[in-house]
Amino acid sequence: MAIELVPLPLPASADASKLADFGREVKGVNPADVSPELFKEIEQALYKHGALLFRNANVSPAQQYALTKAFDPQSKSYGHGNNKTGETKKSILHPDLKTIPSVPQVQLIGNGTVYNHEGLAEAKLKHPSHTTFHKTRVSPEDEEKGVTRFYRWHIDAALYDLNPPKVTTLYGLSVPQGPGQLCRYDDGTGDELEVPLGTTAFVSGKVMFDILPKELKSLAVRSKVKYAPHPYVWMAPAHAMSTALGIESEGLEMPLEELPPWEESKIKVLPVLWKNPATGDLHFQVHPCGAMELLVDPLPEGANREGALYPDGEHITDLKEVRELLYKMQRPGIAPSLVYPHDWQENDFVLFHNRGLLHTVVGAFKPDQVRAFHQCNLAASDEPAGPTHEDVKAYA
Ligand SMILES: [Fe+2]
User: What is the pTM of this model?
Assistant: First the structure.
């Protein structure tokens, strides 16, 4: 049985030609109960389209965990680890997550207070807001008028010790409805995007790579990112840029010697481009906030050196330079026309390829707007594959 795939409705702001392959609604399939044959089709569709939507789903935490795990049967623990130890208390992610007691790999996220939920008597949830993370903020007057920002463009990943999850599932149980908001980039470009209230915004890592000029493709295909140890603790004192695509270089990161104990061997060094397991496409997959250093390989033999950046390779340790290079490569990929802002309906179940796109929370809720989502992703059993020798030859 072939599954029925329908393109997701794109907003008027979207460049339909660039997003033609991105996202599909899966019709007539219950994500709570997927046979092995059906799973293979879903897996291929997911890697091809980046995000799959199942409407009117009814999925228990155990079923959500089972479907998420099917993508990586050897994975076990939540993407950031299951155990909340003392050292993660200082992490900027700590307040956003409440674990479901019976299935600790599934997290309750959202806004407002939720009662008697899956064994949690009372859970106080807070929708993350740019006002506590960005260096600057939308003025309270503009916020009142519905102006907002992206919160933090990211990949779901611990980026230390654990491998980036292959997929994430997001299940919208309570979805407050309200007027849309205007997401402003506030970076001097005038870029802005009309978004549904509380949207999750997605951009394709494949498109982010495809639109780069030749010299930046060459840099990307030759580069690896070294992430900071305990990156979410490291970045906690720092402030993000107004586009939510990385951290302002103000020297505020926690000094490495003040971080919880860490080991060099657990630091993640990951390629900038991750190879899609189904299509072979290259996706620009960098979590800019956690990036600390850039390791650039020299051009391969016989490559044209004209206009090439770092033709002889470079280990870039200057944090500002690292961030500026990454920003130059990633900012084009979050242009308003390339963003898919999902318009959440109650009981939407979204499955996304965490190794093929970037996403972010957007917008702000009032305290009485109760939003409850179940989220699951699992630290992967392997590291993402980078470009092959042929890829390097083709793009360097
Ligand atoms: Fe996320």
Answer: 0.96
Give the residue from 210, 246, 206 showing the smallest Cα distance to 326.
246
Rounded distance, CA 222 to CA 313, Å? 8
Three-state SS for 371? strand
Distance 221 CA to ligand 1 centre (A): 25
* Ligand 1 centre distance from Cα of residue 69 (Å): 17
The per-residue pLDDT for range 191-212, each reduced to its tens digit, is 999 999 999 999 999 999 999 9
Task: Tell me how far the alpha carbon of residue 166 lies from the centroid of ligand 1, in angstroms.
Answer: 12
How far apart are the CA of 107 and the centre of ligand 1, in A?
A: 11
Q: How many CB atoms lie within 10 A of CB 238?
A: 18
Across-strand partners of 289? none
Helix 319-330 vs helix 214-221: angle between axes, to the nearest 10 degrees?
A: 120
Beta bridge partners of 349: 54, 171
Instruction: Kindly report the number of other CB atoms within 10 A of residue 87's CB atom.
Output: 13
Spacing, Cα 169 to ligand 1 middle (Å): 10
For the chain, how many helices (H) and strands (E)?
Answer: 8, 21
Given a cut of 50, whether residue 86 has pLDDT beyond it is no
